[in-house]
Design goal:
Elements (H helix, E strand, L loop, with lengths): L1 E3 L18 E5 L6 E2 L1 H4 L10 E5 L6 E3 L1 E2 L2 E2 L9 E5 L6 E3 L8 E5 L3 H10 L5 E5 L6 H8 L7 E5 L12
Parallel strand pairs: 1-2, 2-4, 3-5, 4-8, 5-9, 8-10, 10-11, 11-12
Antiparallel strand pairs: 6-7
Length: 168
Amino acid sequence: VSIYGCEECTSLPRLGQLPSLKELYIGKMSKVKVVGWELLGTGVAFPSLEILAFDSMPSWEVWSTNNNGVVDASVFPCLKKLLILFCPNLVEVSLEKLPLLRVLTVKGCGHGVLTTLLHVASSVTMLEIGNISGLTDELWRSVFKYLGKLEKLYISGCNEIRYLWQSE
């Protein structure tokens, strides 16, 4: 399913309740500020979803699976690939665990998005990052420890990183 270019939309439909949905692409929705329970619905959300992409959402600020103060672990149980592209104002990400996530791409976002996602997705084997604002050497070292299963790493436009790792 692709939802692109709905410029006047301010929220997303309850797609999380589609039991067979495997791929979801959402983009160019300039008025969406929060993605949360309006997308997820109730119960196990996105039980079969394997690929999720958000692209070019300049007003998006909050992504949360928080339900009345509790972050729900029954969201995205099969998610393997996540892309967040050009969402510069996304600052708050509240997800529980993404146990099967293997491929993570984050471009054109702030460092908080990357660090939060790597904390909940310790099984990432391929990481692609680009133009991550505020990603300094110190922040990079703090998230690098979560990349124990990493096999492929692609970095572009992260000009505040001077050293990829510190050798003894």
